[in-house]
Amino acid sequence: MTDSSSWPLLWAGALLAGGALGVLFFAGLWWTVRRGAASSTPARWFIGSAILRTAIVVAGFYAVGAGDAVRLGLCALGFVLARALVLRATRPTPAVPAAPQLSGGPPCA
């Protein structure tokens, strides 16, 4: 049985572990899409990556959860928060619009 004073530490660890699993999963997905799109055999990349990423995440959730619903929930919360983090980190930079032409003829001439 866990001492009541160590629960916050276990909960923080579960949240961080979920975040690490999420970063691994979603960064791996981003990497796979980039590699698979340029590959001559993209199906191998996507299927292999999906199996590997899913296996790692399921094993991680199983290890972190360890039969405790609170730790499993916090791990899942960390996973979802990591998704938002990876989405923000991999967002393409917006294109800068061209400056309007101020002198000369109309642009369609």
Q: How does the SSE layout of this entry go?
A:
Blueprint lengths: L6 H32 L3 H24 L3 H21 L20
Helix pairs in contact: 1-2, 1-3, 2-3
How many β strands by DSSP?
0
The tally of domains stands at: 1
Question: Count of DSSP helices?
Answer: 3
Low-confidence runs: none
Multimerization state: single chain
Report what the structure shows:
This protein has helices at residues 7-38, 42-65, 69-89. The protein is elongated, with a radius of gyration of 22 Å. The chain has one domain (7-89). With 109 residues, it is mainly α. 71% of the residues lie in helices and 0% in strands. The mean pLDDT is 85. The N and C termini lie far apart (80 Å).
Which short descriptors sum up this protein?
109 residues, mainly alpha, elongated
Give a short summary of the structure:
With 109 residues, the protein is an all-alpha fold. 71% of the residues lie in helices and 0% in strands.
